[in-house]
């Protein structure tokens, strides 16, 4: 018997097959069909927002947000260095310039450094922020691993400097504030735009897919129009703008509708499993379980352990390989985006925490199907492997 506990796999315990078969039976497999509107409706209800457009991926949702925010060649967009690269690539699709702002201990953008950058490195005149004569138009805020960024402070800064806020909520569907000024507000519904992803490893999946929302319902209508080739007249092929083929298909949406039915249960399990991990890692000296922001309820999509490098003498690769041999799939947090080839010449601002965490964070199994026994096994193996490297 070879044990293998995967990092994160999809869960299809509900109506997925039924709805997908239904879509096939009806012949509605492409970018038209009732499941698409049904998914949009269920997301809007869940997020307490009034308009959501389903699209082809989280990346396309982010790209459309930048287009709609008016980001054009030569503009500056403030972005995070420590996240999945899809959060930043759309800046390049628009031929704009990313500037990397450090994260804080939540792995999300550090609002203090964001403010400092705007105040000290930029010029703010006539309600326009410029950096070296380039207009700073927007900031992309990622809610990393389902942890809410400090949106209260970030929204204040954005308002002060007239920046559009694009929330990358691809990992944070369901995360919301439970206290304070933004109480009841969901990740993705606070800024000007919010992007979601339904890729295979996200909290719900449509195989590949995404969704987008905005703070004004008519803006979402325009995003939907852009995502469907900007058709002004469906029958006579009139197009008044450059559109995109970014719409979700009905087959994907059929999966999505079923997954949305299960989302509350998935979030409940992710939270319960996190609590068990917390209990089991409690007091462990070589690694610290990373928490989630106070005053919020997180979907707890992904779990992170900060490895004490002063005590554990091994590379991330060695740790991951050793765990793989025990049947436990883990991964390192991302490589810094500003160190990837397409970005090595871009400006970075006071990166300290991002490189620190890039070398220390291990992600470990977080699927909704994982059992109590498996969690106990994972913790035991992680403890043994780290201990063996600490001697
Ligand atoms: C998954 C992810 C994306 C991209 O979503 P896709 O649906 O895969 O295009 C963007 N940003 C972050 C932070 C992600 O984790």
Features:
single chain; 391 residues; alpha/beta; Aspartate Aminotransferase, domain 2; Aspartate Aminotransferase, domain 1; 2 domains; ten-stranded mixed beta sheet; four-stranded antiparallel beta sheet; 35% helix; globular; binds pyridoxal-5'-phosphate
CATH C-level of the largest domain: Alpha Beta
List low-pLDDT spans. Answer: none
Main β-sheet description: 10 strands, mixed
CATH topology-level name of the largest domain? Aspartate Aminotransferase, domain 2
Tell me, briefly, the overall form: globular
What is the mean predicted local confidence, pLDDT? 97
Helix content: 25-40%
Briefly summarize what is shown.
This protein has helices at 16-26, 34-47, 58-68, 89-93, 111-121, 151-160, 217-227, 250-281, 316-325, 353-358, 372-388, and strands at 52-55, 76-79, 97-101, 123-125, 128-131, 134-142, 164-168, 176-177, 193-197, 210-214, 287-289, 296-297, 303-307, 331-332, 347-349, 361-364.
What's the SSE blueprint?
Layout: H1 16-26, H2 34-47, E1 52-55, H3 58-68, E2 76-79, H4 89-93, E3 97-101, H5 111-121, E4 123-125, E5 128-131, E6 134-142, H6 151-160, E7 164-168, E8 176-177, E9 193-197, E10 210-214, H7 217-227, H8 250-281, E11 287-289, E12 296-297, E13 303-307, H9 316-325, E14 331-332, E15 347-349, H10 353-358, E16 361-364, H11 372-388
Parallel strand pairs: 2-3, 2-6, 3-15, 6-7, 7-9
Antiparallel strand pairs: 1-10, 4-5, 5-6, 8-12, 9-10, 11-13, 13-16, 14-16
Helix pairs in contact: 1-8, 2-8, 8-11
The structure holds pyridoxal-5'-phosphate.
């Amino acid at each position: 018997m070879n044990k293998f506990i995967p990092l994160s796999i999809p869960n299809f315990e509900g109506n997925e097959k039924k709805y997908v078969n239904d879509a096939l039976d009806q012949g509605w497999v492409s970018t038209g069909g009732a499941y698409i509107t049904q998914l949009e409706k269920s997301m809007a209800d869940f997020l307490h927002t009034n308009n959501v457009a389903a699209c082809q991926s989280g990346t396309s949702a982010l790209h459309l947000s930048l287009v709609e925010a008016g980001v054009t060649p030569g503009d500056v967009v403030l972005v995070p260095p420590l996240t999945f690269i899809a959060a930043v690539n759309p800046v390049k699709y628009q031929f704009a310039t990313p500037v990397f702002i450090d994260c804080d201990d939540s792995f999300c953008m550090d609002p203090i450094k964001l403010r400092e950058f705007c105040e000290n490195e930029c010029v703010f005149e006539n309600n326009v922020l410029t950096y070296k004569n380039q207009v700073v138009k927007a900031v992309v805020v990622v809610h990393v691993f389902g942890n809410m960024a400090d949106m209260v402070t970030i929204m204040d800064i954005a308002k002060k400097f007239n920046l559009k806020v694009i929330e990358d909520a691809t990992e944070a569907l369901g995360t919301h504030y439970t206290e304070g000024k933004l109480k009841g507000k969901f990740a993705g519904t606070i800024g000007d735009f919010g992007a979601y992803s339904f890729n295979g490893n996200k909290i719900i999946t449509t195989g590949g897919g995404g969704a987008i929302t905005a703070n004004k319902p008519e803006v979402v209508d325009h995003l939907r129009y852009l995502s469907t080739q900007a058709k002004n007249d469906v029958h006579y092929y009139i197009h008044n703008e450059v559109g995109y083929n970014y719409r979700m298909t009905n087959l994907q949406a059929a999966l999505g509708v079923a997954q949305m039915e299960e989302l509350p249960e998935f979030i409940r399990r992710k939270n319960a499993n996190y609590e068990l991990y917390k209990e089991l890692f409690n007091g462990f000296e070589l690694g610290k379980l990373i928490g989630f922001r106070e005053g919020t309820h997180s979907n707890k999509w992904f779990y992170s352990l900060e490895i004490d490098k002063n005590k554990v003498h091994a590379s991330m690769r060695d740790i991951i390989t050793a765990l793989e041999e025990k049947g436990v799939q883990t991964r390192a947090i991302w490589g810094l985006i500003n160190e990837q080839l397409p970005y090595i010449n871009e400006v970075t601002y006071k990166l300290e925490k991002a490189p620190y965490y890039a070398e220390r964070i291990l992600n470990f199994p977080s699927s909704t199907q994982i059992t109590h026994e498996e969690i106990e096994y994972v913790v035991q193996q992680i403890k043994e492997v780290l201990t063996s490297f600490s001697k």
